[in-house]
């Protein structure tokens, strides 16, 4: 696991030199390219899903749209026609996921270098190194935030369609177009979280109701999730683990300071609302852990933009920087050592 720690501290060092010598954009692009190479040419032994994607690539003519999204067929056939190797699939997904996220970081925040560091420790490992289809979909989600703010419905519709073609779970983001980008009611989101925990404490399997949705694709997906749970192939989630508690505490801080943050970043309200729903769905869908994690991991991508907001909230800037870096390092360690998300790179 040493490789990921070396990478993290390398990016922290790059951040220092970027700020010191006023070369933020150049170093930012170089770091994106480095991450792209690392994820695109990773060894097959370092992540859990690698061999599954190789199998998909080999059997691309035999699998159906219920199993994999349309864009995978396109990318796999491009890789087969131009390069005749499954490695090209990972390279293409890596380029799309990493550079589109990098562009989104610049669009959404002045602290894009800090977002890059947090990304390398969290969602880079989760998405670009593991769940490559969700990786591109989550990039599209970030790119959709300015579109929601400006209420450009046609562009948003196109992004929803594109995101869904990369991962079906992106459909859940359709409803976020109706978020008010200028005001937030903290009481509503606090009550929403309380409701989620009440569902959990009362043992209500709210997610199982989705099996009765009169849309074959959705109902079949939920039946598969439930069968995995019943067969013991899916574990119960802990909605009170330290990382969940940290995220809820951080959300409460954001809700408390929303007006102050909105004055400094016009996208703050939309980002906070999406973050609130990511935490809510994680608890509400506790009875289907796969779906709970997938939803939280997709919507929770906004965390990369929100964590650097500590710079706004803490007067002593050097303490804010240290706090952000420590949080990133801690999250990365939890994902690697406790959750077992990834194996050694070499």
Task: Explain what you see.
With 346 residues, this protein is mainly alpha-helical. The protein folds into two domains: 1-173 and 317-346, no CATH class; 179-313, no CATH class. The chain has helices at residues 2-20, 24-40, 50-58, 70-82, 87-108, 112-121, 123-128, 132-150, 153-166, 186-201, 216-230, 242-256, 258-264, 268-284, 289-299, 303-306, 310-313, 317-338. The N and C termini lie close together (9 Å).
Low-confidence stretches: none
- Structural domain count: 2
Which range does the strand content fall in? under 5%
Written as H for each helix and E for each strand, in order along the chain, the element string is HHHHHHHHHHHHHHHHHH
| Count of DSSP H/I helices | 18
* Helix proportion range: 55-70%
Mean pLDDT: 89
Distance between the termini: 9 Å
Structure summary, number of beta strands:
0
The structure class reads: mainly alpha
Name the shape in a single word. globular
Q: Any idea what the radius of gyration is?
A: 20 Å
Largest sheet: none
């Amino acid at each position: 696991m040493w490789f990921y720690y070396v990478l993290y501290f390398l990016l922290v060092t790059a951040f220092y030199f970027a700020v010191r010598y006023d070369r933020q954009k150049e170093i930012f692009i170089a770091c994106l390219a480095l991450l792209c190479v690392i994820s695109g040419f990773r060894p097959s032994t370092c992540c859990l899903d690698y061999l599954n994607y190789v199998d998909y690539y080999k059997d691309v003519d035999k699998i159906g749209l219920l199993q994999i999204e349309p864009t995978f067929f396109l990318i796999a056939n491009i890789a087969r026609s131009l390069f005749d190797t499954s490695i090209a699939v990972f390279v293409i997904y890596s380029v799309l996921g990493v550079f589109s996220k990098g562009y989104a970081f610049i669009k959404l925040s002045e602290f894009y270098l800090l977002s890059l560091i947090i990304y390398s420790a969290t969602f880079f490992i989760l998405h670009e190194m593991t769940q490559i289809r969700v990786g591109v979909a989550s990039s599209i989600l970030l790119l959709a935030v300015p579109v929601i703010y400006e209420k450009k419905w046609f562009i948003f519709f196109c992004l929803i369609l594109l995101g869904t073609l990369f991962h079906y779970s992106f459909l859940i983001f359709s409803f976020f177009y109706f978020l008010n980008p200028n005001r937030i009611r903290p009481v509503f989101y606090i009550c929403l979280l309380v409701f989620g925990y009440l569902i959990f404490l009362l043992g209500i399997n709210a997610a199982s109701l989705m099996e009765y949705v009169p849309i074959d694709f959705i109902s079949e997906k939920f039946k598969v999730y439930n069968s995995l749970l019943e067969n013991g192939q899916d574990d119960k989630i802990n909605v009170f683990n330290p990382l969940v508690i940290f995220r809820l505490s951080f959300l409460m801080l954001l809700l408390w300071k929303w007006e102050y943050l909105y004055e400094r970043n016009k996208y703050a309200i939309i980002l906070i609302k999406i973050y609130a729903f990511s935490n809510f769905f994680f608890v509400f869908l506790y009875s289907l852990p796969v779906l709970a994690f997938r939803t939280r991991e997709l919507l929770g991508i906004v965390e990369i933009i929100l964590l650097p907001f500590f710079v706004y909230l803490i007067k002593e800037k050097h303490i804010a920087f240290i706090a952000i870096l420590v949080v990133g390092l801690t999250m990365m360690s939890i994902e690697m050592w406790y959750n077992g998300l990834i194996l050694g790179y070499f």
